Amino acid sequence: MSKSAKEIVKDFYRSNILTDTSVLETYFHEDIVLVWNSSTGLSILHYDDLKSFFSEVSRTYRDLRVEVSHVLADGDHVTVRYKYYISTMENPDEELGIAHFISIWEVKDGKLYRGHSVSQPVTPQDDTTESYHKVKV
Questions:
Q1: Could you give the CA distance from residue 113 to residue 61 in angstroms, rounded to a whole number?
Q2: Are 67 and 83 in contact (CB under 8 A)?
Q3: Domains (ranges, CATH) in the chain?
Q4: C-alpha dist (Å) from residue 118 to 40, 41, 83
Q5: Phi, psi angle pair for 76, to nearest 5°
Q6: In whole angstroms, what is the distance from residue 108 CA to residue 106 CA?
Q7: Sign of dihedral through CA atoms 91, 22, 48, 42?
Q8: Hey, which residues does 102 pair with through a beta bridge?
Q9: With contact defined as beta carbons under 8 Å apart, do 85 and 95 qualify?
Q10: Among 16-25, 27-36, 113-122, whose mean pLDDT is lowest?
Q11: What is the pLDDT of residues 10-31, one digit of tens each?
Q12: Which end of the chain, C or N, has fewer beta carbons within 10 A?
């Protein structure tokens, strides 16, 4: 029995993309397109762009952790709300929140196929203890 789109997305966010070199091949469709609106503007990323992006992230950070608060599914479309935390090579004992995301993924052939993400950097004013508890996962 094949996994639901929701389970595929949840499994991707549980994976360790920094150390597991099979994550991209396992979860990203070869024709993946991610449309990402961030504080620096719009980026449209394809498979090779995402491969380069995560390769750079793995060189830059010692650890990357995702905290998911919401996962909502409607057929092959899954919306996920999450926050990324990192630790640096220079200070491996300190974990820092770096960005909040909301992403909508379309799953095709059991892989992430089309994504739309909106992100913003973490700020000192973020109230993560009250607004970031898990609601629907």
A1: 26
A2: yes
A3: 5-131 (3.10.450.50)
A4: 11, 10, 12
A5: -85, 5
A6: 7
A7: negative
A8: 81, 118
A9: yes
A10: 16-25
A11: 999 999 988 898 999 999 999 9
A12: N
Mean pLDDT of the chain: 90
Give the β-pairing of 28-38 and 111-121: parallel
Residues 6+ apart with CB under 8 A from 105: 5, 9, 77, 78, 79, 80, 112, 113, 114, 115
Q: What is the Cα–Cα distance from 10 to 137, expressed in whole angstroms?
A: 8
Q: Which two tokens stand for residue 125?
A: 């004013």
- Is the pLDDT assigned to residue 126 strictly greater than 80? no
Q: Give the pLDDT confidence score for residue 129 in this predicted structure.
A: 53
Angle value at C-alpha 10, between 14 and 127, nearest 5 degrees: 75
Across 37-66, average pLDDT = 94
Quickly tell me which residue has 């994504």 as its tokens: 115
